[in-house]
Amino acid sequence: MTTKTRKTYGATALVALAVLFIGVTILITFVLRGARLDLTESKLYSLAPGTQKIVSSLTEPVNLYFFFSQEGSSQSPQLRAYAQRVRELLEEMAQRSKGKLHLNVIDPQPFSEDEDRATEFGLSPVSVTPGGEPVYFGLAGTNSTDGREIIGLFQPDKEEFLEYDVASLIYRLSNAKRATVGLIAGLPVDARFDQMSGQMAPGWASIQQLRETLDVRTLQADGNDIPADIGVLMVVHPKELSPQTQYAIDQFVLRGGKLISFMDPQSENDNAGAQMGMPPMGGRSSTLGPLLDAWGVKFDTNQIVGDRELGLTVSLQQGKPPSQHIAILGLNRASMNPKDVTVSALDSINVMTAGALSKKEGATIEFEPLIQSSTNAALLPAAKLMFLPDSDALLDGFKPTGERYTIAARIHGKVKSAFPNGKPGAEGAAGAHLTESKEDANIILVADTDILSDPLWVRTQNVFGQRFSVAWANNGDFISNSVDNLAGSADLISVRGRQSFFRPFTKVDELRRQAGDQLRAKEKELDQELKDTEQKLTALEGGRGGHQASLSLSPEQEAELERFQHERVRIRKELRETRRSLDVEIEKLGTRLKVINIALVPLLLALGAIFLEITRRRRLRAGRAAAHTG
Q1: pTM for this structure?
Q2: Which of 94, 132, 197, 283 is the most exposed place for a label (fewest CB within 10 A)?
């Protein structure tokens, strides 16, 4: 073969390889469109299974309008990075929706039609920097029946719930019918006629708030069945429920119904049967009794949580100064579970004479605390608070256990029936009876009923004959969040908080902490030497005595001052060296990462390719040699 022929073959091979590369690229572009490989530790770029089911099961088109001001956010790189994260999530959802989810990305310029459209949806701009251009960063959605939902502002500090918020918006648009909530209440939560005052007493704001957004249907407390169209059952103060009603609740949960129950060791709003200021004859406690035992939950109605740290300052009697009441608690953000969407964004919830929930030993359920006391808490006998004239008496002998007591909890998992023999009074009768839940149950239990009452979270004002309620705590938000969460689909409930998109530089932070410790040690050393020198100077001056002694310095003082000045210069130099060494270590770390990413990884890939090519050629030569020998 001549040299010219070899060159021709080589050029032809290069052209063929180029054409092949272009063809494969085009093929991959069309065949593998939307395919992704998520190699992040927490699968940040992978949709949760529940989200995938929600978007893939859409039957009607849903339009999403993502508004983000690119120019206005130019001075906030962190916000722009988060906006990219939101956009990628929305694009991923649109790709998984089988064409039912239509995404529109809009950059609303000032005084433009896009800005007018954002305002029409109800989105408002925010100022990222002082005096800077307002920024739109929200999402609006519409469905085929003129339904609208919005997320007014994507907050980077709530990134863990980004997927849940978006999935919830899509679910609400695809399920326009309001969820039906059944309410069994042992307390006067709705508006009623008060015989004592002869006037209509208003209902509790927490229940009225639910009725504004959900179809809340009141059920009889002695009912024998829960209607099939009830998706969420809300049980308030289940005091002395009949076995038949308990059985109805039991079967409702086993069928897959969602339950939220408010129980209490001592409900301060239970005045049924009370006379002359005495408590009710049957007591004020309530519990689901055998149902809790079957579910693997412990709740003792004889114990109340007392908290020395979170107890509110109140006045029990008129004319007496306020004092701390350790059984009336103002729970703060540290009391909330940061990983549960129902309470993660809440700042304060107030409870009164609440009980404690816990998981039974050996129970197979997943017990997730939602609201807990501080560690400066202990359990108090409920009888001690029944006739309590002075809250200071609760402090007598109070000894914190160091344990955090759970006041509200979520229960997941398979649960068994509390009535293995069937309906009470009808054992052995024909009819459908479940002994175990088919799917994982989802139950929220709250060991306090007073959390629902107005005095613990709203102030009522009358303005020109109109009654207005102003919230000063998040009790109502907790109730609404919990019921909304349960009213969603099982797929939506399964979308839990994800790990944050922003990953801290743990190694850099560790270096800074180490340098900070060294700096603090040097500063202490400098302060101590300064104090020692001043004491020596004072002693020298005291030894000489006389008024003129203070006008000049002795040789000893001069020497001491000179020594101190040298020491101070030395220590300050060491401080600078420590700071400089910190920067040097961080720069070295950055250099190492750059070398790894820019040089080492490509080098390893190149070496791997060369190794594979050498191996391939050796195999070809060995094959040719074998063929020639044969």
Answers
A1: 0.65
A2: 197
